[in-house]
Design a protein that fits this description.
7-stranded mixed β-sheet; about 325 residues; 2 domains; 7 helices; Purple Acid Phosphatase, chain A, domain 2
């Protein structure tokens, strides 16, 4: 028996180690070298909505709140693209971006984004964003570059002692909750995040609850499902007014869940969940909420194709 154990245990350990190395080979050694930035170094901080900003929007004469919503971009949009989006969504109060804005979480891609964003028509617009898997480094321990927190400051009201960039922002008549699903690999972190999420939803004070996250609760196609995200968040987020995610590089809607792809590496998928609306073209959205002084408020989410800006879908949520 002991002789058998002396042979079996090392064999199992070696086989397990070999399997792990095979699985993680690309993560450890398959990362492309960081491109070298040869242009001027730009140090720009994206503003985010503060309480003062929210007060000023609520008191402004414009008709309610209007946000531009972008999905996976993967560093593919140029300054001209941002100018075109600004022309089709004029006077946006803020931009929501739901992850994988950068192709990689390296300084080169931050500089590329800043160069294209700076002096575009969207320059200076407050940004609400959450990291995607491409902003994280690969390996056993996924890490988010310190440049992220510098470039995209956000309120420090996320779940305590949980890594990542989860937080919420109160806008006029909307509580927007950003969940960073990338680092949630430990049960304790997932539990703390769920406790925080439920509290953030329960204390919204009658506002519309809009959640943004990179990995979707309902994945668009076969092979894309994230079992952890589905199991943990499906029930709680089913009570939200709107949940916007990315990652799948397709568009789908099964209210309140939406998957949005703006420009990143379009991959037409074989749809799995038979949602109400699907589309494989890159799209963007506008999130509009009627003015607080209205007798009854209404949230409207419109989805447009990026190439010709035609309207392909609309979602309406009404609070009496």
């Amino acid at each position: 028996m002991r002789k058998w154990l002396k042979i079996a245990i090392p064999t199992i350990l070696l086989a397990g180690g070999a399997a792990i190395c095979a699985i993680r080979w690309q993560a450890w050694f398959g990362m492309p070298a960081e491109p070298q930035w040869n242009g001027e170094t730009i140090d720009y901080v994206f503003p985010y909505p503060t309480s003062e900003w929210s007060d000023s929007v609520a008191a402004s004469p414009q008709d309610g709140l209007r946000l531009l919503v972008l999905g996976d971009i993967h560093s593919q949009l140029t300054r001209a693209d941002y100018d075109t989006l600004a022309a089709h969504v004029p006077n946006a109060d803020a931009v929501i971006q739901i992850g994988d804005w950068l192709e990689r979480g390296q300084d080169y891609y931050y500089q590329l984004l800043l160069r294209e964003w700076t002096n575009s028509a969207l320059y200076g617009t407050p940004v609400i964003t959450t990291p995607g898997n491409h902003e994280y480094s690969k390996g056993f321990h996924k890490t988010l570059s310190p440049v992220w927190d510098h470039a995209f400051p956000h309120p420090n009201n996320g779940p305590k002692e949980v890594p990542g960039a989860s937080y919420y922002v109160d806008l006029p008549n909307v509580r927007l909750i950003a969940i960073d699903t990338n680092p949630l690999v430990r049960i304790v972190d997932l539990t703390r995040t769920m406790t925080w999420l439920r509290q953030a939803m329960n204390t919204a004070g009658g506002r519309y609850i809009v959640v943004v996250m990179h990995h979707p609760v309902l994945s668009v196609a076969k092979g894309r499902a994230n079992v952890l995200v589905y199991s943990a968040f499906r029930r709680a987020l089913g009570e939200a007014d709107l949940v916007i995610a990315g990652h799948d590089h397709s568009y789908m809607r099964r209210t309140p869940f939406v998957v949005l792809n703006t420009a990143g590496k379009n991959k037409p998928q074989q749809y799995k969940y038979h949602p109400e609306v699907t589309d494989s073209a890159p799209v963007y959205g506008t999130l509009e909420v009627s003015k607080l002084s209205s007798p009854s408020s209404q949230l409207r989410f419109n989805v447009y194709r990026l190439n010709d800006h035609t309207l392909i879908d609309s979602i309406y949520v009404k609070h009496d």
